Amino acid sequence: MSPARSAEHVAVPGLGTNDPGVCAQAPGSPAIHTIELSKRYRNTVALAGLSMTVARGEVFGFLGPNGAGKTTAVKLLLGLAQPTGGEAMVLGAPAGDLETRRQIGYLPELFRFQSWLTAREVLVLHCRLMRMPRAGWAAAADEALRLVGLAGRGDDRVGTFSKGMQQRLGLGVALLGEPALVVLDEPTSALDPVGRHQVRVIIRELRDRGTTVFLNTHLLEEAEHVCDRVTIISKGRSLATGTLAELKVRRPSARLRVTDLPGGWWQRLANFGRWTQEGDWLLVEEMAAGRVPELVAAIVALGGRVEAVIPEHQSLEESFLKLLGET
Amino acid sequence: MSAVLTIASLTMREAVRRRLVAAFALISVVLVGLSGWGFYKLSHGTGFTSGETNLALPQAVVLFMFMFSFVVALSASAVASLAVSGEIDSGVLQTLVARPIRRSDVLLGKWLGLAGLLGAYTAIVSGLLVGVVYWTSGFVSPDPVAAAAFVFGEGVVLLTFVLLLSTRLPALAAGVIGVALFGMAWLAGVAGTLSTALHIHAMHTASEIGQYLLPTDGLWRGAIYYLEPSSFVAQQLAGAPEATGDPFLALSAPPWPFLAWAGIWLVGVLVLGVVSFERREL
C-alpha cells in the first residue's frame, strides 16, 4: 500500500526504497518487495495490504504487537501460506519459489526439530535438503554449531536440549549454506541475556557479509540494537517504515536542575525550545540535536547555576506506542 | 527423487530411533511364539483326529493372519495419522517445507518410508509364521507370499487413506476415522458373505459398493484365499453348503477388475493427499 493510498501510513522522510513501484524483477532487485499483500482467514483479516521493500544487505526489523500479522507475513514470504491478495517477491522471484528457497534461511517462531536426531544430524539433514555438496555437510554442520555456541553438543539428541538450545540450533539451521536472506521470527524468545547478545553479534556479522536479515520481533530493544531500518505494523497494516532515527520523530529534550536564574530568563532562552517546570526541574522540549552544551553555557552566562542536566531522547518504544495510539 | 528418499529414510530412522520397530519386533516374536505353541498342540495333541487337524490348521493360520492384519491396519493408521498433522502441530514440518523441496516430495517420502516399514514388518512376521507353522505342524499354506502381499496391500490402502486425512484433520481424528472405516469395511465384507449365503441381493450390492469405496476387506479376502488349500474349501462346502456364508472362507481369488481398481484407488488417494498437502496452509 503506498503512503498516498493509506490514511494510516505515517509518511517518514527518506523512504524512497519503500515505493511499491520498484521493479522487483530487475537486476539487483530488493531482497523483499511486497505490494498490498493480504491474508484473510475466513472472517479474520491477518494482513491487510502490506507494502514494503527490504533492500539487499540490510537488517530489517519487522515490529508489531502480538497479533499484528508479523508471522503471517513471514509465512506468506516463505510460501508456507498463500496470500488472498497482493503479491510478494523475494530475492527477485515470487514468494515461495522453489529455487529461491535455497538462498533463504528461516528460523520459525515455533522452532521444533526431530527430537530423536542429534543436533549434527539435524544440520546434515538440512544440508541434504538444500542439495549442498555432500563433501561440505560435516564442515557446514560444525561451523553452524560453533557459530551458535553448540560446538560441544553436536552429538547430543535434540530431545535433551533446553528450549534456548533448540532455538540456537534453529538459528544454526537458518545460517546453513550462507543464505542471501535470513528470516528470523522472534529469534531470541527463548534465550537468556548471553544468548540474546550472541544473536545480535551473529546478526551484525551477517550484515557485514552482505546478508539480508529480516528480523521479526516484538522486542523493540532488539530492533534498536541491530536494525538498519524497521517497519511497524499493526492490525495487518504497516504504520511506518524508516531508520530508527527517522522513526524517533520527536526532537530530543533535556531536563535541568538550575538555581539562581534571573527573572524573565525564559524569554532569553526561548529559542532553545519549549520550556515547562516540573517541581525542581526545568524541562526543555523540541530542542535541536546537539544544543545541550550551548544551552548550559547560556544559562551560566545569565548567572544561573546548573546542578544537573539529563539529556532525554525519545525511545523507539515511545514512537512505537505513539504510532499504535497507545499514548 | 533424492528429496523423496531423504524423507523416506528419515521416516524409517524415526521408527527405529523411537523404538517403534523394537516394540513391534518384541510383540511379533511373542505372538508368533505363542502361535507356534498353539500349532504344535493342534498337530500333536491327542484329542484330534488327523482329519480334524487338517481342517483346523488352515483355519488357525487364517485366524492368526486375521489378527495380524488388524495389527498391521492399526499400526498403519496410527503412524500415518501422526505423519503430517502431528508434525504440523509440533512445528517440525514447517522447517522442512521451507527448504527447496516440494511438498509432494515430503508426502511421497513419508508414504514411501511408512509403506517400506509396513512391508518389512509384514514380510518378517509372515515369514516367521510360515516357518513356525511348518516347523510345528508341517502345514504350508498354498501361497503364503501372495497372502502376505494381500495383507500388505490392505495395510498400504489404509495407510494411504489415513495419510490423506492427516493432511487436513488433527492426528487423533484422522487415526480414529481410519480405524473406524477399516472396521466398517470389514463388517461390510462379512455382511456381503452372509448375503451371498442367504441370497439377499440388496445387502450383497451394498457390500460390493463398500468394498470398492475402501478396498481393504476385498484385499483381506485375497489373503484368505491364498492361505486355504482348495481341498480344505471343498471339504468345508461338501460338509455344509451354507459355509459360503463363512467370513473366513474365500471361494475365489479377488477378480482382476477389483485388483485394478484397488491400484487405481491407491494412486488416486495418494495424489489427492499430495494435492491436499500442497494446498494446506502451514
Task: Explain the overall architecture.
- The complex is a heterodimer of chains A (327) and B (282).
- Chain A has 327 residues and is an alpha/beta fold.
- Chain A has two domains: 3-247, Rossmann fold, CATH 3.40.50; 253-314, no CATH class.
- Chain A contains ten helices and 14 strands.
- In chain A, strand 1 (32-41) and strand 2 form a beta hairpin.
- Chain A starts with 31 loop residues before the first strand and ends with a helix.
- Chain B is mostly helical and 282 residues long.
- Chain B has one domain.
- Chain B is built from eleven helices and no strands.
- The mean pLDDT of chain B is 87.
- Classes of the chains: A alpha/beta (327), B mainly alpha (282).
- The interface between A and B is medium-sized, with 29 and 23 residues.
Strand content of chain B: under 5%
Strand tally of chain B? 0
Q: Please tally the helical runs of chain A, counting DSSP H or I stretches of 4 or more residues.
A: 10
Helix and strand string of chain A, N-terminal first? EEEHEEEHHHEHEHEEHEHEEHEH
Query: How many structural units, i.e. domains of chain A?
Result: 2
CATH topology of the largest domain in chain A: Rossmann fold
The value of Rg of chain A in angstroms is: 24 Å
In short:
Chain A is α/β, with parallel strands linked by helices and 327 residues long.
Sum up the structure in keywords.
heterodimer, A: 327 residues, alpha/beta, Rossmann fold, 2 domains, six-stranded mixed beta sheet, four-stranded antiparallel beta sheet, 10 helices, 14 strands, B: 282 residues, mainly alpha, 11 helices
Topology at a glance:
The complex is a heterodimer of chains A (327) and B (282).
Chain A: E1 32-41, E2 44-54, E3 59-63, H1 70-78, E4 85-90, E5 93-94, E6 104-107, H2 119-129, H3 137-147, H4 163-175, E7 181-185, H5 193-208, E8 212-217, H6 220-226, E9 229-234, E10 237-243, H7 244-247, E11 253-259, H8 265-268, E12 274-278, E13 281-285, H9 292-301, E14 305-312, H10 316-323
Parallel strand pairs in A: 3-8, 3-9, 6-7, 7-8
Antiparallel strand pairs in A: 1-2, 1-4, 4-5, 9-10, 11-13, 11-14, 12-13
Helix pairs in contact in A: 2-3, 3-4
Chain B: H1 2-17, H2 20-44, H3 50-90, H4 92-97, H5 103-137, H6 144-166, H7 171-198, H8 201-213, H9 216-227, H10 230-239, H11 256-279
